[in-house]
Each structure stands twice: as C-alpha cells, then as structure tokens.
Amino acid sequence: MDGVDLRVEAGRIFALLGPNGAGKTTLMRILTTQIKPTSGEARVFGLDVLRAGAEIRKLVSYIPQEMSVWTDISGYENLLIYAKIYGIPPRERKAAIEEALEKMGLREVANDLVKNYSGGMLRRLEIACTILIKPKILFLDEPTIGLDPSARKVVWEELAQIRKDYGATIFFNTHYMDEADLYSDEIAIINRGKIMKQGTAEELKRSVGGEVVQFEIKGEKISGDCWERLRALSMTNDVTASDSKISLVVGDAERALPGIMEILRSGGVSVERISITKPTLDDVFLKYAGTRLESHDRIGEVRHVRRMIGRG
Amino acid sequence: MMELELRRLKHDRTELYTRAIQPILWIVVFGPIMAAVKAIPTEGISYIAYITPGVLIQSTVFVSIFYGLTIVWERDSGILKKLLVTPTPRYATVIGRSMAAGVRAVFQILIIVPVALLMGVGFVPNVIYFILAFLIIFFASGGFAAASLFIASFMKTRERFMGLGQAITFPLFFMSNALYPISMMPPIIREISMFNPMTYLVDAVRGLTVSGNLSNLGLDLLVIVLFNLAMFVIASVNFKRIIE
Question: What is the structure's pLDDT at A295?
Fold first, then answer.
C-alpha cells in the first residue's frame, strides 16, 4: 500500500478495480481488521480499524476470494454453523436460514453436500452465510472469480437484491472491468498500492476524453451556419467530415445527440446512420495506471480455487 | 464448533475406522506379545490392561495433534479469514476448534474399549470413574489440539505440519508411561517424561479405569488443567499469525 486515500459512501456498490498484485486484497483485509496497517488510518463507519476491531466485526461481513464454507457438510449445515458462530438466537435461527436460502435460490440443494455444488452455487451459499446477520457492509474479494458469465450474472442479481432489501453497502474487489462497469455505483482504480482515480463509471470514462458521434448523411451539402453550430457543440471545437460522414467529439453523446439532430434537421440534412464510440474502462485504466488491465482470468488462481473445492 | 465436527463425522466416518486400526494393533498384537515376556512390572494388572489406557490416549492425542491439519486446510481455503472477521473473539474460536477436536478424538474410545473388553481387560466397575475418565480424555484432547493449532500457526503448509506432527507424537508416546512405567526408563528420559503432559493423563485414566489407584489423581488433574490453559492461551495469542 502506498498512500491510499479513499472514501466510500454508505449504501452504495463500490468497486475496487485493479490488476493482480495491485493491493486490492491487502486493502480489504485491513478494512476487515484481519491485518493491521503499518501506518495510516482506516475507518469503517467512523470506527478505527486499530481500536474498534470488535465493533467493526459486528457490522461487516466478508467473503474471501478463495472459499469460506465447509465442503464436507451440507449447505444447510453450513448456514446453521455460521448462524451459531454469529450468535443468532436459537429462536430466530431457523427463520434467518430459511430466508437466506430462499434469497439465494438454494432451497432445493440445501441438503446436498457442498462438495457437489457448482461454482456459482458455492458463491451463493457464501453470500447466504454472510446475509444471515444482515451486515451493514459486505466486503467481497473477487466475488465472481472463476465463474462463467451466467453464474456471474445470477450472483450479481442476488447482490443487488441484498442491497435493496437491507440497504447494505457493498465493497468489492475485481479485476474484471465489465463487472465494475456494470454493477457498481462507484469505482476506484488501484495500481501498485495507489488509488489512481475514483468516480462513477461514466465520470471515469468521460475523464479520458470525449465520446465520438459519427453520422452518415445523404449526399447534400451542409450549410456554413450548420457547421458553426455543430462546432460550438463539440468539445474539441472541431467537426471532421469525409465523404458522406461527419464526426464530432462530445462530452456525453446521449445528451448531445438531440441537439445535434436538431441542428442537422434545421439545416435540412437527412441522417442515414448514427454511431457512438465511447471510451471503455480499459482506456480509463490505460490513462491512469499507464498499463492495460489484463482482463483474462488468472488461470493459476482459478485452478487453485477449483482444487480447494475438489479436495473437499 | 463441536457440532460442526459431529456433522462432518456424520457425513464421512472413514477416518474413525482407519484411525482405530493402529490402537487395535497395539492392544491385540503388541499387548499379548509383551505380556508373554513378563518383563514389565504392571502394578498387579495384566499387561494388556496396563497399556489399554495408554493406547487409548495415544490414539486420542494423535487425532488432536493432527487436527492442526484441518486448520491448515481452512487457512488455504478462505474459511479462517472469514472466521476472523466474525464477531466471535479469537480465544472462543481457538477453544471451540480445540474442543471440536476433542469430539473427534473421544470417538476412539467407543472403538477401543470394546476391543479391550474382548481381549479380557478388566475395567474398574464404576460408572462414575469411567465418565470422569472420559471427560478427562475429552478435555485433555482439547489441550493437545490447541497445541496443534499453535504449531499450525507456524507451519503453514500441510507438508511441514505433517513432518512436525510425526516428530512430536511419537516422542510424546514413548516418553510417557503409556507402555511401561517411568521407573524403567533411563534417568534422562525419565526426567523428560516428567514434563510430558501425556504421562499425567495416562496416569489419571489408568487409575480411574483399570488399576483403581487414584493416589496421584489430584496432581494429574492439576497438570492437565494447567497444560490446557497454557495451550489455549498461546494458541489464541498466536492464532492471527496463521493467516498472515
């Protein structure tokens, strides 16, 4: 860690995006009081991780990257054991477990041994274990590593539902750009232990540079007045044209489009086709971290996780 | 935590049976052969009866000592990290896991005692003594398991742990009164065996179950309690190291 300065608002889904070895897991382990920071200060709901560890542990729930359930007992039994570890009173235990199973769609497989679960079911069981106590913050370390796209989607739908139901803050680490892009309210980019940039996915992308809107028009000439007005809309104060295509760079394409259409229509230009090119988080990452974020899986890690499951 | 172990055992009992093979061999093969030699003073009871408590404890202590392996596995998976983020205090996790190992260990009793009965071992016919012995074994197994957790917090891979486990268990066994009285040992080993908690454990259980000689019971219990407390404390203090 190298001078991380980060603020996360309550009730949001927050993604910490960075390549392997960037310090994502270390940061999360400091925030969940597993390891002590060598210097600096971290607070969870205003509670200092060094002094108020016990109080923090009552508010947070954490799912490690690897696996946090016992594979040689059933899903229901895992929930039962965790309910006891969390100290849920016996009267409420059954209801809490039933609710968690229902929410995560695990009712049918509740009595199967966990070693027979698929990767997606395993993650959902882990999430079920953490929502037993309805935590204020859910820390997820690479929640969908090694899952196929449809299982990832299911996991995220469940997580979004949890936030809606309990108003929990979700803080997750990921090296999948699309995941940060699709499911988070806010993203911080981390590289080599430093937070490079923080903002919503839209803000981050916009900060890289504008979005490009390109029109294919029917042969007619565009009037000089029309050019001027288009230029005024453009971020780079320039509109390029070639053959029957004109393109301009704007800050927010969706917002700019009606205005551009208005100008073109009033100038009597008929548009055949519109395309919008937006910067991706990869471009954002390239700008702030100076390298590309490898989006393919770390095969070694995945194998490791698989092996753990197989070993039972 | 104990419930966790019971539930795991319910789903997979193989370990119970395979673990029972070794102690059964001690009682069924080693016992009668050594008894035939008649070289070991056994306080007036048969040699097989003499070693039964020792073998019983050896087998329960071995289960406990290797319990650390489970913890190393849980370290490799993410379970330990998650447990450390629950509101449960560390010492509760350590004691809970240790006593859970005790649960696993005492199942050995259920297998070994019937075998010993078949071999004609005469137990002291006193249910209360027997229950007391059972509780002592259970409690002390927890202590040895805590020692194992302590070791696991240094040995973070299962290979290293296996190596050290072997290096500890046999000296514990042979440098105790499990198979022969301490008075027969060479003086240096005798000194060492006085610091071996297993010696006191075997003495207590032997007195309660086969010999009926309870003269040292107070001291035995004191040593076991102190041993357990010490192990619980050092294992708790060191527990966090295991995930680092």
Answer: 45
Q: What is the mean pLDDT of residues A255-273?
A: 83
- Asked: is A13-204 a CATH 3.90.550.10 domain? The reply is no
Domain spans of chain B, in order of start: 23-243
Which residue type, as a one-letter code, is found at position A222?
A: I
Going by pLDDT thresholds of 50, 70 and 90, the confidence category of residue A296 is: very low
Question: Alpha helices of A88-176 — where are they, by DSSP H?
Answer: 90-103, 119-131, 149-166
Domain ranges of chain A: 13-204, 210-278
In chain B, which residues have their Cβ closer than 8 Å to the Cβ of A60? 85
Can you say how many angstroms the Cα of residue A305 is from the centroid of all Cα atoms in its chain?
A: 21
A210-278 CATH, one of 1.20.140.10, 3.90.640.10, 3.20.20.70, 3.30.70.980 = 3.30.70.980
Compute the nearest-CA separation of A295 from chain B (Å): 24
B81–A68 C-beta distance less than 8 A: yes
Whole-angstrom distance, CA of residue A257 vs CA of residue A255: 6
Q: What is the ipTM of this complex?
A: 0.74
Letter for the amino acid at A203?
Answer: E
What is the band of A303 on the pLDDT scale with cuts at 50, 70, 90?
Answer: low
| Gap between the Cα atoms of A81 and A87, Å rounded | 10
How far apart (Å, rounded) are the C-alpha atoms in residues B242 and A147?
A: 28
- DSSP codes joined into one string, A251-267: S-HHHHHHHHHHHHHHT
Residue A139: what residue type? F
